[in-house]
Amino acid sequence: MANIHYRMKTLGFLLLFLLASPITLFITLVTLFIHVITRKPAVSNPHAKRILISNAGMTKALQMARSLHSDGHYVVLTEEYPLATHRYSRCVSKFHLCADSDDRPAYIQSIADIVRRERIDLYVPVSHSSTERVDARIREVLLQFNCETFHGTVEQLDMLSDKCAFIDQARSFGLTVPKSYRITDRQQVLDFDFSKEKHEFILKSIAYDNISRSNLRKLPCHTRQETINYVSSLPIGKDSPWILQEFIPGKEYCTHGAVRNGELRLYCCCESSSWLLQYKHMNNKPLILEWVREFCARINLTGQASFDFIESTEDGRPYAIECNPRTHTAITAFYNQPLVAQAYLDKEPLTSGPIQPLSTARETYWLYHELWSLFRVRCFQDWLRHFNRLFHGKEAIYSVDDPLPFLLHYTVHMPYLLLFNLLYPRQYNKVDCALGLIL
Fold it and tell me: Which residues are listed as membrane-spanning (predicted)?
């Protein structure tokens, strides 16, 4: 029965892609005509670097490629499967298949082979949760090819990706974080005295868990038995620890940062939620910016880090709730910022703080997510909000100067994933056009 349910769900998504494909094709054809008329000459950079970017199926990898190419650099993309359609971007000079990241020795060797073959100067991993640690190990391997890796060390990755270790580290620096406890046994939660606490708590898996993160419940539940039933349903154990974290009432924000030798060089801050797929930089959150700068400087990070915060409605202070040491999709907010390459490549300290999105940058979104959202609209104000975003925002993949990824991502890449899931059904929560994945 479960397989039938997910097959029907997948067929529904495929139908939506099919119905929307004429819109995508029309937009692309018009754009190609405009592009032929307005095409700009390629930028010549006498100091151009050869740069490798991983996980080509993700929008953030495409945005990274566009930002670096716009400064005249030679960009190579890599991905585990051939239908990563961002490879057809005009900003990409070469594309190479790499080994499956589940086979770590083969994956490391394949990246090293690409670096050697293409004479890469800089490797920028656009990691996901399952590759961020192996990308840290690649860093040491690539030194023999005189290739720098813009990524943290294994030790830093272990600390940052472990929600409890990260909270403990931030607390030791005197930075604001919620109360948090490592849980390796369900009984720890059942024995916890919630009556002594000011706020409710939530339970989160320390390892990335796409399913559980979409169903967070505040503890304690209404009755003791409900709490027992909920906690008993979670796969908590010594080999799969969870974190019991204070739930601070407030507004949630996410950040993306690029850091070199502890200096925050690129930064954006956006409103956030579990499945947010719209990004607009908030330049009026100085306390969050200072928190990120202080933490990155204290651990002397080189690499990318994305922090999630709750800005408390009680005291106005930002409380960091977790860190993902990888590129955040919010990097799409830099689509018209010409200084992104400077943030990643230059080694001279910046004199006026980190590079941030331009004030003219519009809110980024993904067309198909917005079209699907229209089916869930329940009031006129929501209709106005969605149409305002569609006509006044910026589609994250679409570009007048680079139209093919927009067409191919929605008509080839995503339908291919859905067809594969139709043949080999598995449980999933959503179709994520931003990451180019079914999660």
Answer: 12-37
Name residue, tokens 């922090």. 307
Q: Is 95 helix (H, G, I), strand (E, B) or coil?
A: strand
Which CATH architecture does the domain made up of 179-246 adopt?
2-Layer Sandwich (3.30)
Pairing of strands 250-260, 303-312: antiparallel
The Cα angle at residue 405 between residues 308 and 337, in degrees rounded to 5: 50
pLDDT of 36 reads 85
**d(C-alpha 164, C-alpha 245), whole Å:** 9
What own/partner pairs with CB < 8 Å and gap ≥ 24 does 370-377 have?
Answer: 371/16, 371/20, 372/16
Question: Quick one: which of 137, 88, 84 has its CA closest to 111?
Answer: 137
Q: Is the pLDDT of residue 417 over 70?
A: yes
The string of pLDDT tens digits covering residues 306-321 is 999 999 999 999 999 9
Q: Is the predicted pLDDT of residue 356 greater than 80, yes or no?
A: yes
Instruction: Kindly indicate whether the domain formed by 249-350 is annotated with CATH number 3.30.470.20.
Output: yes
Residues 6+ apart with CB under 8 A from 11: 422
pLDDT at 274 (0 to 100): 59
Nearest to 215 by CA among 436, 61, 427: 427
pLDDT digits (tens, 9 = 90+) for 212-235: 666 789 999 999 999 999 999 999
How far, in whole angstroms, is CA 259 from its chain's centroid? Answer: 16
Dihedral Cα 276, 279, 280, 286, nearest 10 deg: 70
CA distance 368 to 92: 24
Higher pLDDT, 35 or 124: 124
The per-residue pLDDT for 245 is 98
**For the chain, how many residues are written?**
439
* DSSP string for residues in 304-356: EEEEEEEEETTT--EEEEEEE-S--GGGGGGTT-TTHHHHHH--SPPSSS-B-
Domain map of the chain by residue range? 2-39+365-438, 50-151, 179-246, 249-350
The CATH code that applies to domain 50-151 is 3.40.50.20
Cα–Cα dist 114/56, whole Å: 14
How does DSSP assign 170-181, residue by residue? Answer: HHHTT-----EE
What are 5's two structure tokens? Answer: 């349910």
Q: How much is the pLDDT for 162?
A: 96
211 pLDDT tier (thresholds 50, 70, 90): low
Say if residue 310 is exposed, middle or buried (CB neighbours under 10 Å; 0-12, 13-18, 19+).
buried
